[in-house]
Design a protein that fits this description.
Mean pLDDT is 80; it is low at 147-155. 77% of the residues lie in helices and 0% in strands. The chain has one domain (2-319). By secondary structure, the chain is mostly helical. The radius of gyration is 20 Å and the shape is globular.
Amino acid sequence: MIAGVLCALGAGLMWGLIFLVPLILGDYPPVVLAFGRYVAFGLLAVGLAWFDRRALARLTRDDWKEAARLALVGNLLYYGTLAAAIQLAGAQVPALIIGTLPVVIAITANLVEQRSGADNGAVQWRRLALPLAIMFAGLVFVQHGPDGVAEPARAPGVSYVSGLLLALCALLCWTWYPLRNSRWLRARPPGLSRAWATAQGLATLPLAVLAALGYAVWEWLAHEAGGRYAWPFGARPGMYVGLMVLTGLAASWLGTLLWNKASHLLPAPLVGQLIVFETLAALLYAFAWEARWPVAYEVVGIVLLVGGVLLGVRIFRASD
């Protein structure tokens, strides 16, 4: 039990790094952060592919197409929109929005089950009213405080609202991804988890390279009209390359490895709730980067959001 919880905590600490990088590299375009991270992850997957070469050889063309779709939405589009949201709205609120994933995914799965007519594991919607209300209250507290007045430092406006919309887009990407990924895995024999993760890394690499080349062309054309990004590594190449390698290794590979280990060591009702470690780690990193403690209403908002997530997960687990 202790080892499993520590693995889940380690995964959360690794995944939380992805919320810090856009703050450190705030002068870098979000698309550069996205393809940089996944080029690093893809190159790592090339090395790991040797260990899964037999399983990878059994994948069909349709399997590789599915891996490419998952890589595009779950990797590049997700992190690109998340990085943009963090740069526009700060790290705290996007982290909390992403922190609702356990319940949002469960709600989406509930809808899918009901529409399919199977109703396996479906939950009555009235049972979800309380956790959803608690999470909504938490988000309101973090964004506006108890008096409904936004903190001046947040500079609400078009950029802030755009950041929230992009965070919701990232949430949609990572709601679609695990459901689609789980469907593929359930349709195959057991034992393909590691090989499938490697396949997605391999599928991510050419997409990330194409995105990088496309941005290079766009930046070259923009440079003629006054573009300012210093291709290919920006104004701080050492910091950029180091952080891309760090996120590719720690967040994309090590975090997933630790989470898979926790999933094997802990009962399913518990491990599903421990994804809140990612949200808490992201908030911890953001407050540390800003060199401040959370104010009172931010603490209340965090407690409400985490409490709503845990309550919602418990409701769905109880229905299993």
